[in-house]
Amino acid sequence: MRLDFLGNLRRTHMCGELRLEHAGQQVVLLGWVNRRRDLGNVIFIDIRDRNGMTQLVFDKGENAAMHEKASALRSEYVIAAIGKVRRRSADTINPNIATGEVEVTVDELKVLNDSKLPPFLPSDTSIANEEVRLKYRYIDLRREQMQANIELRHNVAMAIRQSLSGQGFFEIETPFMTRSTPEGARDYLVPSRVYPGSFYALPQSPQLFKQILMISGFDKYFQIVRCFRDEDLRADRQPEFTQIDLEMSFPQMDRVFEVVEKFLEAAFKAAGIELKSPFLRMTYDEALRQYGNDKPDMRLPAMSDIRPAFTDEDLAELRIDPSMEMVAIRIPKVGKISDREKKEIRALSDELAKRNGNFAGVFYDFSQMEKKRPAVASKIREICGAEPDDLIVPVVAIASAEGKTHSAANKRAQFTVAGEARLELGRKYADRHNAFVRSGDAARDFRFLWVTDFPMFEYDEKDQRWNAAHHPFTSPHDHDMDKLESDPGAVRALAYDVVLNGTELGSGSIRIHRQDIQRKIFHSLGMSDEEAKSRFGFFLEALEYGTPPHGGIALGLDRIVMILAGADSLREVIPFPKTAKAVDLMVDAPTPVSDVQLRDLGIVVKPQR
RNA sequence: GGGGACGUAGUUCAGUUGGUUAGAACGCUGCCCUGUCACGGCAGAGGCCGCGGGUUCGAGUCCCGUCGUCCCCGCCA
Hints:
This protein is α+β, with helices and mostly antiparallel strands. About 30% of the residues lie in helices and about 20% in strands. The protein contains 17 helices and 21 strands. It has an eight-stranded mixed sheet, sandwiched between helices. A five-stranded mixed beta barrel has the order 1-2-3-5-4. Strands 12-13-15-14 form a four-stranded antiparallel sheet, with helices on both faces. Helix 4 packs antiparallel against helix 6 (about 255-270), helix 9 packs antiparallel against helix 12 (about 410-430) and helix 10 (about 365-370) packs across helix 11 (about 375-385). It binds one RNA strand through strand 1, strand 2, strand 3 and helix 2.
């Protein structure tokens, strides 16, 4: 096949643009052959670009030469069609496409490029498996759905940029090659050639740089920025991902919330969704108590405290430990539960109890309770606001002979188990109860929530020490400062998460701006002055030079777009994502490198194979 | 690191209790067709059943290992 050059040919319209009003006009369309329908003496070609599709007509009776040329076209050839827009006769209108009222009769066809037959076609109705899609990502990205997702991503990012810029934020770049601060996630390391044995690290977040930008007097900073974490992947976790990172000087928490609500409103508006602000708020303790979870899905019913349903005699006879929490999970509209499912629910109880260590709670078989203790059962139904078809699972603790289950940690574990059970059961019965059904109203119901007052520290049982729950630059509550030494577990932080329908979208805090407090925190974390200095010396020093009170937040752009696109995986909204084993199937990375490269870097590697 | 699901034609899948020549749809190639739009009709090509080993007279099917993809737990301050 002879290929044509573009020459000085200029596109007049995109392929999805033509309407009735264009009838009679001479147009130039440039794009790909989406489908061809060869009827013998007439050939229809759908020409496609990112904007849509137009039907081209090649009629042998009208233009034999062009018809001949068109008969050689195949899927994904790149063509230029010069022709006239024609109104379709009433019986040939295609209401399924935007350009369905017109077609283009082609006077001149240029084949700008041919194409090997791809392993799958963008126009295929069934979607190829992900391994194939990722290897031939450039084909996959031609699919209408992927084009829409990437466009949505662009629109959302632009709306956020505009909103933040309008709110007085500067977009400022921070380095990708920076310093390793081993804590939290593993760093991706970049070896230095100039200093053999030394490494840069790719940032897990621009945390310290953005704080230093506040010290530098920039007042309000943001960046839509790539971050890197060398940890195992999930459907909603990629090793490189994009954050909307921002920091501001002199804010209270509420000011940060206002800024975020404003740009999220703009972002969702770009996707055609009106949000209600301000968002709901809930403290960490409340969230745990009501949902057993620090990122509750507000579309779901909260758990209920069912203690009032029991008399003391009930508790004694049922051997329920009254010092523990008593809550019930309600999953709406599940309907009848089979014996097998009851067994599965009990098994889930055991599994979750095991996962949460020493917790001694159980799921009570509610149907049995309804038989044996109808008064208690109906009281529980009442407390939960249960409808007849709802599944109720009471979570209580059975009094043990040793009576060992009363610690605060165990109570917390009990809420957690109940919360996890609620999620698992919700997933399990998703096709039956309506709250999780994607196609239902729930899929377009966006319930934002601010979770506040996170604990400052978490105790690490394994290492027998306190860790920063958020990060060590988070400011404790003013009035909890005196508990830093005496009762670290009770110290609340000025830290907050923004949560959407059970997904954590972002996390931030008011930071420590005083060097004396920062030192205290490092002490509480069991870090000596020397150690703090060697790891964060540059930052501690910066804090000493007139640091304004400041705070900020970072939100996952990929997750926001994923939710807006109604996708199940980040890979659907990231153009070139990695597999669950962190491999890029298209470029085949990572790869071994040459000995010469390694020698230059002063690295000796033992071959693995 | 652990658990689970999957791997058969270019693609999506079926393949019974282990039994003759491994099927379908879409795609592809050729022919026919002037109003299709997921065009239609006829004919055809296309398979290391992921890979390696084992059990068996006989393996796509059973067993072991291995590789890959996906999901979950751990991990992700």
